[in-house]
Each structure stands twice: as C-alpha cells, then as structure tokens.
Amino acid sequence: MSTDGPKIQRLSAEQRDNLVAYLDGELDEPNAQEIERILARNPVARNDVEMLMRTWELLDNLPRAAATEEFTQKTLSTLKAIDVTEPITEKPWFDKVRRGAIVAGWLGGLALSALLGFLVTNQFIPNETRQLVNDLPVIENLHKYVEADNITFLEQLRLGGDFNQPRDR
Fold first, then answer.
1. Is 54 exposed, middle or buried (0-12, 13-18, 19+ CB in 10 A)?
2. Structural contact between residues 40 and 14, judged by C-beta atoms closer than 8 angstroms
3. Domain limits of the chain?
4. Within 26-150, where are the H helices?
5. Rg (CA), the chain
C-alpha cells in the first residue's frame, strides 16, 4: 500500500535559524516570505514554529534571576580588561616579525630549491671526471697494454697482480 502524497522534508540548519529570526521579527522581507511559503506547505516547519513559541512562553513563566552587585562588578571589570587589550596585529613589533618570517620563508624556499637542483644535477647529468677516476688503473698502465702482443699477456699481468703495484717514475 503506497501513498502518492508529497514527501515531508526536514528543515535545514539555515532554515531553522531563519525560523528563529522570523519569530523575532529580525528577518528581511525576501527571507520572511520564503519562511511563510515553507510554513504554508510544510507541516514539519509549522510544528517546529509551534514548539519554539511554546518554549518561549514557558521561558517567560520562569522567575528572573537577579545578579548580585559583586557579580556585576566582576563582569564589568573583566569586560573592561578585554576591551583594553589590543590585537596582536596592532603591536609595534608585529610588522617586523611578519616581514622577517616572510624573508625567512623565501630564503628557505630558495635554499631548498638550490639543494634540490644540485641533487638532481649531480645524480642525472653525467660527470666526465668520474669516468676518468673509474678508468684510472687502465690509464696508469696504458704503456703495458701498448707493449702487449696479445690478450694472454694481459691476463697474465692481471693474475700476477702487477697492476696493483705503484709505478716507478
């Protein structure tokens, strides 16, 4: 058994806030008209308004508490202390600290970029001197290779450890 009537939707938080402003008479004309349209077709909204009105009526029946003179004085002195304090952005040193932080941020970013550039360049761009250092034993013993008649002689030199000996100059 299904009912094909309109679905009842819950009110959003903004609409609930507007209901309170509507009852207080603080809502502007376009929003007040929107609330009236919602109330005309939404029983949930009408129920919410009725509950709010009942709550306010009950609050009006509660006895009013009177604050003591001591409480009033403490509250007023606390408010005066809060009013006297100026925001941190108004302090004379704040601009210097802010500028210093900006300069430090830029310098840190520049240093990080330089370090990253160095590491990437050092890692991926071939270094010709590194290849020369790797080939140093061959270069130092090139005169022996030139005198060799065949590969067997070079194998004998390698096995004999002759390459590990420092060359006389």
1. exposed
2. no
3. 11-61, 94-124, 128-164
4. 29-41, 43-61, 69-84, 94-124, 128-134, 136-140, 142-147
5. 44
d(CA 48, CA 70): 40
Predicted structure pTM score: 0.34
Sorted by sequence, the CB contacts under 8 Å of residue 167 that are 6+ apart come out as 140, 141
pLDDT in tens, 92-151: 888 899 999 999 999 999 999 999 999 888 888 777 788 888 888 888 888 777 777 777
163, 137 in Cβ contact below 8 A?
yes
Cα 1 versus chain centre, distance: 53
Measured at the CA of 102, the angle between CA 99 and CA 105, to 5 degrees, comes to 150
